[in-house]
Amino acid sequence: MPVPHKLQEFEAKDGDFVVTPDVQKAFDEYGYIVVRGLLEPEELSVLKTAIEKDAATQDKSYGRDDGAGRKTRVSLWNHPGDDVTGVVARAEKVAGTFEKLLGGEVYHYHSKVILKDAFTGGAHIWHQDYGYWYENGCLMPDMGTTWIALDKADESNGCLKIIPGSHKAGRVSHIRVGDQAGADPERVEYFSEKLGVLPTVLDPGDALFFHCNVLHRSDQNSSPNRRWSYLVSYNRASNDPFKEHHHPRYTPMEKVPNSMIRKCTTDLKSEGKWFMGNPNDEDISLAGLHGGH
User: How far apart are the C-alpha atoms of 106 and 103, rounded to whole Å?
Assistant: First the structure.
């Protein structure tokens, strides 16, 4: 039986977050950290309102069947932009935190909004993000994602579940399972029995920072409460992909002070973001682009 795992959670203070030695140790050991209150209420309100009212975000979303008749909508873009989504992605307490956790300069790999709606939101099978990104020409697993809760996320509405410490196993083979590509089920079963499975329950404004090799999944949302989230993925500048693919190669990213978030309006801009199309399009392979968390 796995040793009971204590959630590795830390607090943002005064609108900022500092990567202390304890934070770094937790990330290195378990492959993730939870930061409570990463976005303050006023910051979250601007981001959430902007996403809710933006027609482009809804219109450009796509969904993939989870094999059980449910879909989770995803809106994904490749460059951060200058609106509130881009400012959050480039803020010191988001991008700067990942630079410290990964040990070097990062660039914006992509952002996405996950729209797991009430009663209809689909599941996503066990996978590693690097299981897909390796196919994009990223040779090293020097990558990670910040998952920011716009709504409360718990087990009732399909919160993210992780296997803590699974990033130490390296890249696990991914195979097609129905309409998705997921990690080898036999190995996932072993890891879950050895390391345990941890639901990451988040309140609005909380964030999960996780390494690209952490095994994770999410269940269907059968509750009356939607589960929307904003995710930003980063790649180390030193890990510039060796080939062109549907996400950016190294593109210098200008980080901004956290104070810039409060100065943003609730108007989103599509220009320059380069939204992705439906992953079933012929020019986008299932192995390279995944839609669920």
Answer: 9
pLDDT computed for residue 121 by the predictor: 79
Question: Residue holding tokens 């030695």?
Answer: 21
- Between CA 187 and CA 169 the distance in angstroms is 10
Residue 41 DSSP code: H
| Identity at 11, one-letter amino acid code | E
Residue 183 pairs in a beta bridge with 174
Cα distances (Å, whole numbers) of residue 245 to 10, 41, 187, 237: 36, 37, 28, 16
Query: How sure is the predictor about 67, in pLDDT bands with cuts at 50, 70 and 90?
Result: low
Backbone angles phi, psi at 129, to 5 degrees: -60, -35
Say whether pLDDT at 57 is over 60.
yes
Is residue 152 classed exposed, middle or buried when 0-12, 13-18 and 19+ CB atoms within 10 A define those classes?
Answer: middle
- Predicted local distance difference test score (pLDDT) of residue 28: 98
Q: Which amino acid is at 200?
A: T
